[in-house]
């Protein structure tokens, strides 16, 4: 059988699905299966080549697939159980969609003869999938599963990355007649808008112009090109607040982010009369606030889109550098190596930023879901060892721990440092179990302020003055207090609690040297 081409082998639909995924480069599956998916589980068991990573909640599986794609640029698959299982994973599929991550969801469905009986788990799976998917299909028979799977991978790889959801009725999985599909052609990124190039060049004429970058414009080489353009034209460069992947550290071009707090963002963007977008959207606020603008740019600012997120951003920046005669100009804003002085005493936000900057290992991956605590991290860490920084692009909390799993599976030779608040981490706390099961090299910092601290600030931002004890109580996590050391150890991840800078420095050194998962509860 091994000597026959796949198209000549006899197999069921589930086996054709696994063979097709592998032939098209999908060799990791983040799984949380149920009864309808048992034939796919069986196929994963006896067909070599697919790494199956079990998650105890579907949001962990979908978030891990997001982190995986960001680091290797190819999709993983997820295996989810019917409509409710997919629904449990929607939050992190939303985040993945906003990040431009490619994911292939395999969602089990009742057998076609069973759907009409309206069994308890019957649901509109296509209807659940569509808001977070670019491509949705239900396989009609075992004969079409292979082709459907190949087209799902093709859809997931459309730049910058898309969510493809393939629904697999259980009878299409167990029936014979499956035909595996060999690798199919992938679509090239769309060309950038060359009709805007001349206007972009004219706009880049000094400090009143901003080159705003996002998505694939934030690779090391593209940032170097942007730095050359900034040095030649005098324009400023920034990135969006949330970035799927940003290359940072000493020797790389440093790019600041448009701030999250609306008042600060308005001040930062106020000087710019012209903004050229490469892979980024025009800046808007996360939310509407009474009496404040939702559009963050100054009135009358000229906004020009040279390249959207799905375009060839490297080509766009290269053309812009060539047209501004910047190709040989030394880049501006290259970060110098800088190690902050070692702080002492109790941990506060400034000390915390300095300690993280000192600890980031060379070539580390930092997964950041520290929305409130982490606002000071960017300037403090710009001169740290070279590293990759991943942000939550969709704003739905519970992203950090799962994305760290995906990053660690994708890059087992790199250290992963996950920065998250206690409120966010509780949404996908089951991630710790998967980290332990897979022995992933992840160091988790839980910032334990025992509250939804960001919402405390949002009360003021939306105009609620002097909130009372009942309002504050709804934003607190201290009745009872969460014990992250106990929770972590119960799931197989070593953990410590720290309150002082000395303790944090030692815990970071020990954790990063351990080679496996560990957690540090940082009391704030």
UniProtKB/TrEMBL annotation:
Residues 11-116 form the Thiamine pyrophosphate enzyme N-terminal TPP-binding domain. The keyword Cytoplasm does not apply. Belongs to the TPP enzyme family. This is Acetolactate synthase-1/2/3 large subunit. It comes from the Bacteria. Residues 386-522 form the Thiamine pyrophosphate enzyme TPP-binding domain. It comes from Sulfitobacter pacificus. The lineage of its organism: Bacteria, Pseudomonadati, Pseudomonadota, Alphaproteobacteria, Rhodobacterales. Keywords: Thiamine pyrophosphate, Transferase. The keyword Transferase applies. NCBIfam families: PRK07586.1.
């Amino acid at each position: 059988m091994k000597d026959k081409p796949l198209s000549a082998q006899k197999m069921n639909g589930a086996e054709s699905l696994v063979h097709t995924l592998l032939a098209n480069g999908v060799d990791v599956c983040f799984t949380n299966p149920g009864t309808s998916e048992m034939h796919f589980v069986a196929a994963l068991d006896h067909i070599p080549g697919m790494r199956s990573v079990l998650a105890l909640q579907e949001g962990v599986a979908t978030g891990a697939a997001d982190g995986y794609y960001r680091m290797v640029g190819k999709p993983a698959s997820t295996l989810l159980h019917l409509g409710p299982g997919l629904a449990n994973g929607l939050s992190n599929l939303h985040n993945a969609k906003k990040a431009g991550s490619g994911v292939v969801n395999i969602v089990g469905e009742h057998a076609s003869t069973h759907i009409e009986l309206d069994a308890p788990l019957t649901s509109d799976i296509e209807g659940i999938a569509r808001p977070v998917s670019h491509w949705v299909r239900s396989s009609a028979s075992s004969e079409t599963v292979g082709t459907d799977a190949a087209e799902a991978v093709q859809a997931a790889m459309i730049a910058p990355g898309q969510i493809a959801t393939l629904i697999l009725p259980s009878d299409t999985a167990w029936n014979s007649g499956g035909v595996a599909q060999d690798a199919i052609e992938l679509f090239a990124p769309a060309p950038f808008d060359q009709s805007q190039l001349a206007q972009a060049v004219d706009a880049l004429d000094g400090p009143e112009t901003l080159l705003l970058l996002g998505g694939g414009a934030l690779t090391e080489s593209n940032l170097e090109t942007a730095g050359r353009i900034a040095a030649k034209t005098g324009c400023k460069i920034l990135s969006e607040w949330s970035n799927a992947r940003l290359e940072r550290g000493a020797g790389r071009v440093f790019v600041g982010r448009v701030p999250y707090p609306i008042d600060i963002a308005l001040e930062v963007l106020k000087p710019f009369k012209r903004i050229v977008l490469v892979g980024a959207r025009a800046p808007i606020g996360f939310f509407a606030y009474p009496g404040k603008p939702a559009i963050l740019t100054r009135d009358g600012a000229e906004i020009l889109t040279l390249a959207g997120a799905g375009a060839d951003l490297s080509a766009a920046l290269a053309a812009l550098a060539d047209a501004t005669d910047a190709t040989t100009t030394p880049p501006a804003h290259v970060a110098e190596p800088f190690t902050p002085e070692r702080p002492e005493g109790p941990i506060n936000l400034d000390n915390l930023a300095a300690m993280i900057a000192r600890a980031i290992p060379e070539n580390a991956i930092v997964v950041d879901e520290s929305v409130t605590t982490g606002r000071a991290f960017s300037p403090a860490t710009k001169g740290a060892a070279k590293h990759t920084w991943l942000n939550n692009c969709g704003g739905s909390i519970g992203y950090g721990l799962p994305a760290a799993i995906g990053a660690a599976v994708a890059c087992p030779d790199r250290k992963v440092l996950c920065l998250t608040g206690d409120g966010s981490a509780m949404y996908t706390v089951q991630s710790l179990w998967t980290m332990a099961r897979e022995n992933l090299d992840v160091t988790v910092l839980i910032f334990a302020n025992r509250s939804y601290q960001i919402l405390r600030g949002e009360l003021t931002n939306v105009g609620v003055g002097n909130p009372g004890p009942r309002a504050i109580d709804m934003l607190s996590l201290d009745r009872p207090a969460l014990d992250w050391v106990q929770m972590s150890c119960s799931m197989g991840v070593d953990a410590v609690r720290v309150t002082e800078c000395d303790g944090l420095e030692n815990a970071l050194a020990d954790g990063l040297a351990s080679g496996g998962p560990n957690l540090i509860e940082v009391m704030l």
